[in-house]
Amino acid sequence: MATIGLALGEPQGTECARARVVNDFSISVATVNGSGSQSANNVLLKSIFGMGVPVSGKNLFPSNIAGLPTWFLIRASKDGYVARKPDSEILVALNPETAKADVEALPAGGVAIFEESLNLDQVRADVAFYPVPFDKITASICPEAKLRKLVKNMVYVGVVAQLLAIDLGVVESGLRRQFAKKQKVFDLNFGAVKAGFDYAQENLTKQDPYFIERMDKTAGKIIIDGNAACGMGAVFAGVTVVAWYPITPSTSVIEATADLLKKLRVTPEGKATFAVAQAEDELAAIGMVLGAGWAGARSMTATSGPGMSLMAEFVGLGYYAEIPGVIINVQRSGPSTGMPTRTQQSDLLSAAFLSHGDTRHILLLPGSVKECFELTQAAFDLAERLQTPVFVLSDLDLGMNNWMSEPFDYPAKPLDRGKVLTAEDLERLGGFARYRDVDGDAIGWRTLPGTPHPKASYFTRGSGHNDAANYTENPEEYQAVMDRLTRKFESARALVPAPVVVKDAGSKIGFLAFGSTDCALCESLDQISKRHELEVDYLRIRAYPFAHAIHDFVAAHERIYVVEQNRDAQLASLLKLDLPADQLVKLRSILHYNGLPVDAASITEEFAHQEGL
Amino acid sequence: MATATPTPKVNHIGLPILEYRGGKSTLCAGCGHNAISERIIDALYEMGVEPERVMKMSGIGCSSKSPAYFLSRAHSFNGVHGRMPAISTGAILANHTMKAIGLSGDGDTASIGMGQFVHMMRRNLPMIYIIEDNGVYGLTKGQFSATADLGSKLKTGVVNDLPAIDTCALAIQLGATFVGRSFSGDKKQLLSMLKAAISHKGTVMLDVISPCVTFNDHEGSTKSYKFMQENDEPINEIGFVASFDEIDVDYDTGAIYDVEMHDGSSLRLRKLHEDYDPTDKANAVRTLMEAHDNDEILTGVFYIDTQKPTFIDLLNVVDEPLGSLPESMTRPPKSSLDALMSALR
Q1: b (16+ CB within 10 A) / e for B199-230
Q2: Mean pLDDT, rounded, for B127-135
Q3: Which CATH number fits domain B17-343: 3.40.50.970, 3.30.70.20, 3.30.365.10, 3.90.960.10?
Q4: The domain at A2-7+14-211 falls in which architecture?
Q5: Average pLDDT, chain B
Q6: Extents of the domains making up chain A
Q7: Could you say which of A30, A250, A282, B309 would form a disulfide bridge with A310 (CB–CB 3.0 to 4.6 Å)?
Q8: Which residues of B touch A234 (CB under 8 A)?
Q9: Contact B331 A238 (CB under 8 A)
Q10: Strands B266-271 and B236-241
Q11: What is the per-residue pLDDT for A511?
Q12: Considering the entire predicted model, what is its pTM?
């Protein structure tokens, strides 16, 4: 783990006779990319979940198909903390390349479960070692050589389950659910788990203090990744046209969407109520989204940083010609190609102002998988209500990792299809001007191609136009449209999701954050409370343009810490463009941008440093 | 609207040609593009297309302004440079019941838009894609485009030393199912070709040589009126009988290639080149390549396939436009969400 810069945690003491550590530790599974460890990792994760213990998983994987090192971090937390913990107490060392460094990175008193032949127990003395002949065990239960690589991963699950006292029945029922219709696959996998379990029971003597004990903190909860949640949101928002180009880490948004559409959106006659088009590039993907939005579809694409850069020209057209469309950006580490499999929140500014000229875009900022579901739905309503492209800014941590959540609620309101005139409306009105503000909310009425009325048509263009959609280079006419677009953006403040008051302690100090930073910040606020006996306030931002409540929050505090996962304090910068001049001095930044999901301790430490605590 | 009162002449759906007109052209007087707009008006009028059932699509450039000059009663989308295919694809996915007509130029298609052009051809998207091809960039004052012929000369004397991209050969190779070339000055051929295009259900790709009177109509240009009048070599003569027309049976079947179109119309291609078979893909491409070597500008319908499934067929979408499906068809019921949630527990 040291090889990817994970910080060492505090030593936990070396005495053998330590108190039991129950439901509060992390496991790091070190494997080789492409070895098929992912499903075993998730079986272990879901087994801890099945024991009723809050759990989270972080897959730290390389941008590679096979061969490079991968770590899967599983954190069990009786207090419900789901952010990345910098140190893992338990190591499952299955990658010979990194094994030595991984053992060296363990905190004192840690645990190493490893392939016997690696002789890792010589590396240090202050760690509990459990050598396991994984290859021998696997060979004995899996005669088919080509399956052994996969099966070996399940053996480790059995060993860990036995050592941590995870109920084998829970593992079994999780596996049974996963392979519901494939008895043979279940038999093979559970056989491997059982072999690992039995080996540990017969050959290993427990010499560490870590245990999983039953709790009831996961009852009724679900486990899902943010990308699947976004896809589900799109499907329950009634998406009809999806255009995309594969890019890590957003690809699984579309895969999830397409899978669900095939399941849930086919008529009894076998016809699709949707179209999914894999485009030739992101330029085409966003072009298709806007063409479809213009013609009345609920359309979306999903992408990541480089794809969003390519979409810039079209998104400006969408803003100026006022066309709905949803863009889900699962952010990764930039700039340029950056680190495609590492997380960041660094596309905030480029999304907000994407494209040349004066452009501003609506950004929705989900902070949990549940919000990935809800805000993706909201994005479709807002795109059609406000007639403009709407971004959902997720990130790799939220999007590709598994998270516990309350089950998602079925949408309470019907779809908002926005202001669209029908032939009957046109007959009554005698015509319309596409970009005229007739309602005082700066949002015009539109018609869809095919509306059967001679006055239905208008000319959509990205060139200068007046309120009747006619070409213009007239200074007043041009400016009138630009000014109305500014007013429309103001209208959006009241329509976008409001910020969430996470903690209101009446403090002089306030925190602002967005997206996946939330889980680490919540844990950090508890640390601040415990270590420094200091209660602070926290408001979580969920959209741009900023709701007035965000201004009020800043005004009500002496100091504001803006916590975000990018180098350039992008949220703070965006706030500075919005806040009154006398408020700007209040903003301070806590930044994390090394590609790993932010952890609580680093926020706490930086806060203490800046506060002089 | 068709009544017995003395009104202007109307087409078979009762509309006068006036209802097919657009705004006043702001292109140069004599620009080939204006003649193409006129032929589009004639074709839509004669075919009795309902104006509101058409979507006019374009990119950026002189050509892409053209949709403003015909059929004001249809929605129009003047997008960004070279990206008309993507916008059209999205619009057609949202509403495949519409007839889409796209106007592009040689720069908009063969340079900046090449990536999207080739992929649209592959998809056999149901639309008419017209390249108003003059071999130069007009709005930026006369640079060569990628369809300019090798050796052709700019007004400034600059000679083009790169080979032309033959958009027809490319379209045929990539999967377009109705591919032809015409000349803005050939009223009869262009009108017949456009009418047949309206009857086709897949991608129609028409490269229409359309001289730029300001920057590319001089001696040494291969896209000038004079050059085309002297070198236009029709490969077939296009006869078109719409499904609602009375059938004219008096023709010599031996010299005619007769194609039954999707809507029941007939496209009759009188063979001018010996045994030219417009359903033979490889021969079509070879013929075009050979013409380049012989400095001939072949026109006519080069390739047609009325059977190949379109992108819409492949996606197997419902008959109604996706864009106007009611919520009851697009938002799954609560029971579906409940089932998904319990599977995630």
Answers
A1: bbbbbbbbbbbbbbbbbbbeeebbbbbebbee
A2: 97
A3: 3.40.50.970
A4: 3-Layer(aba) Sandwich (3.40)
A5: 94
A6: 2-7+14-211, 224-405, 423-495, 500-611
A7: A282
A8: none
A9: yes
A10: antiparallel
A11: 98
A12: 0.96
